[in-house]
Specification:
The complex is a heterodimer of chains A (about 300) and B (about 250). Chain A is mainly β and about 300 residues long. Chain A is built from 3 helices and 19 strands. Chain A has a 10-stranded mixed sheet, covered by helices on one side. Chain B is of the alpha/beta class and about 250 residues long. Chain B is globular and about 50 Å long. The chains are: A mainly beta (about 300), B alpha/beta (about 250). The structure holds adenosine-5'-triphosphate (ATP) and magnesium ion.
């Protein structure tokens, strides 16, 4: 009974219903308790409860394509607490899966959420991981995701991080990917910070195999005295590797932002570009909307809304 | 002549980067009419458009600009837009993530998605294909121009300045721009049409010929077209046109 109530509270905080379509695998984890676990054929999830969180493994067997995105809901309904998640994910040869992971801390005052992930994609595997966060109205949460990703030959990994409700609090992301021949890596994050929020993102793609591709995209908006520091790196050390690091940060008020794209090319037949733009809203974008009658604040909000719009 | 003047540009001079771009320029724009402005590259057409709209960097000028008899000199862009003045940019801005639908709705007051559909259809853009696309780099130049004009149609402005609406537009889309002009006319909008195209010029009721930030000539379309075609292109007088040539026409 208690479990069902927590599940309902978690989905409510996400603004989602709690019914699931048939054929959709879903997992609900509150603190260190696995409240629900519904699997589909070919998908293996094992979750072991630890003192402050869980250790989990996710495995998709070779050749299996999980049709509908799997929903995983992590969270803590109380105002304080710690949730540590360790996950090992293995997507075997030519298998594919999409996971929408919602992390919800709707009443957070002092919560620590850590995620340590090891993600392995075998040859030809495909994995899309979408991470959506809900935080307390005043933030009240420190989120520390770490991921080590290995993309086998021709594998494709996409990840997308988004804060959909509440304030950032503190977010400190570190993702590190090793990309083998012909693999494709796309990592993107879109976050808006205000008050005293702190955002730190550190993504790294190591293009080791021929023709591997990586695109690292970060769109940030910060206001008040929030701070963002984005440090994204692409190392290209094989022929035909291509990459792009893209960072846009709009700052308002006393907010501050840093962008440090690092492009490290170690092969003459590699091609990596970067683009970083930090500052106020583009004046032509602003004036176009103002010329349609919007005041400056509304025009700015609309531009930022677009910049932070989810891609998937 | 009992035409009503909606906009009066009164002896406006403007400097940019220490250079005089608009030079004692005056013109009267009549309510409900389509006025064309022609002139060679660099004549000051876009500068005049930016000055009427009140864009940043174009707010300090000599002379005055009156909208329905009231000076708008001290108004910012949004205030002018709220009077019903708007501008379709020669090179429109692009927005990451902002959908065509939201972009069009932004200027359309309390309009609904139906307004968006109609506006897109007017410009020959299938709403099913375009409404949810972003107004970003993935739109071609011509598509972006048409989205810009669709947003103008949805806004129903009192006065719109269209800066080269036909540039980068194919023949088919050109007809859509003519439809747009017709719709704006039917709504009672007044139009200032900046163009290099003689086909587009013919859609106007009158024309102004700009040279070096000044009105060199004004009047009927045939007269301006004739002069512009024969004398401006290749002219090196740069705002000191041979009086004989001017008078001789
Ligand atoms: N910020 C600026 N500083 C200095 N000169 C400028 C500036 N902006 C425009 N100019 C100059 O003012 C002149 C008029 O420019 P404008 O863009 O108004 O021309 P236009 O008539 O619209 O030309 P086109 O047909 O090429 O669009 C040009 O010579 C241009 O180089
Ligand atoms: Mg121009």
């Amino acid at each position: 009974m208690e479990n069902n109530k927590l599940i309902r509270q978690m989905y409510d905080s996400l603004g989602e219903g709690h019914g699931h379509e048939p054929g959709v695998a879903h997992v609900e984890i509150h603190g260190n308790k696995v409240l629900g676990l519904h699997l589909v054929d070919g998908l293996e999830i094992i979750a072991e409860e630890k003192e402050e969180g869980i250790d989990a493994t996710i495995r998709v067997k070779a050749g299996i394509k999980i049709e509908k995105p799997v929903k995983i809901c992590f969270g803590l309904i109380p105002e304080t607490g710690v949730q540590r998640i360790n996950i090992k994910t293995h997507i075997e040869k030519n298998a594919s899966i999409g996971i929408v992971a919602s992390c919800t801390f709707p009443f957070a005052k002092e919560i620590l959420h850590t995620m340590d992930a090891e993600i392995r994609l075998d040859e030809g595997a495909e994995y899309t991981y979408i991470e959506r966060h809900v935080h307390g109205p005043e933030g009240g949460v420190t989120v520390i995701p770490r991921a080590k990703v290995i993309l086998g030959k021709g594998a494709r990994f996409r990840t997308d991080f988004e804060l959909i409700k509440g304030r950032v609090g503190e977010i400190d992301i570190e993702y590190d990917a090793e990309c083998h021949a012909r693999s494709i890596l796309e990592m993107s994050a879109r976050i808006s910070g205000r008050g005293t929020d702190k955002i730190r993102i550190n993504e790294m793609a190591n293009l080791l195999g021929e023709d591997a591709v990586a695109v690292l995209t970060t769109n940030i908006a910060v206001r008040d005295s929030a701070h963002a520091r984005i440090e994204n790196t692409i190392i290209a050390s094989a022929a035909g590797t291509r990459g792009h690091v893209d960072c846009k940060e709009i700052i308002q008020g006393n907010a501050t932002a840093q962008a440090i794209p690092i492009v490290d090319v170690r092969h003459a037949k590699a091609h990596v570009t970067h683009e970083a733009a930090i500052g106020s809203v583009d004046s032509k974008q602003l004036e176009t909307l103002m010329a349609r009658g919007l005041n400056e604040d509304d025009a700015t909000d609309l531009i930022i809304e677009g910049l932070l719009r989810p891609q998937y | 002549m009992s035409e009503k003047t909606i906009l009066q540009v009164d002896n406006v001079s403007l400097e940019l980067g220490g250079k005089r771009i608009l030079n004692h320029l005056s013109m009267d724009i009549w309510t409900g009419h389509v006025h064309a402005i022609v002139g060679v590259n660099g004549a000051g057409k876009s500068t005049l458009a930016s000055t009427i709209m009140g864009l940043n960097g174009y707010r300090h000028f000599e002379g005055d600009i009156l909208f329905e008899g009231q000076s708008i000199k001290n108004m910012n862009v949004a205030e002018r837009a709220r009077l019903g003045i708007t501008l379709a940019w020669q090179e429109p801005a692009r927005y990451e993530g902002l959908t065509v639908e939201k972009f069009i709705l932004a200027g359309a007051g309390n309009a609904c998605s139906h307004t968006v559909e109609r506006a897109l259809q007017t410009l020959g853009l299938d709403p099913g294909k375009y409404a949810q696309r972003a107004v970003d780099r993935t739109l071609s130049g011509g598509e972006r121009k048409r989205v810009e004009l669709a947003s103008i149609v949805a806004m129903r402005p009192r006065l719109v300045i269209m800066d080269e609406p036909d540039s980068g537009i194919d023949v088919d889309a050109l007809n859509r721009i003519f439809d747009t002009l017709k719709i704006l006319r039917d709504h009672g909008s007044t139009v200032i049409l900046i163009t290099h195209s003689m086909t587009v010029l013919k859609q106007a009721d009158h024309a102004f010929l700009l040279c070096c930030g000044n009105v060199l000539d004004k009047g009927g379309i045939d007269k301006i077209e004739g002069f512009f075609g024969r004398k401006c292109q290749g002219c090196d007088h740069q705002n000191k046109p041979d009086q004989e040539e001017l008078n001789g026409e």
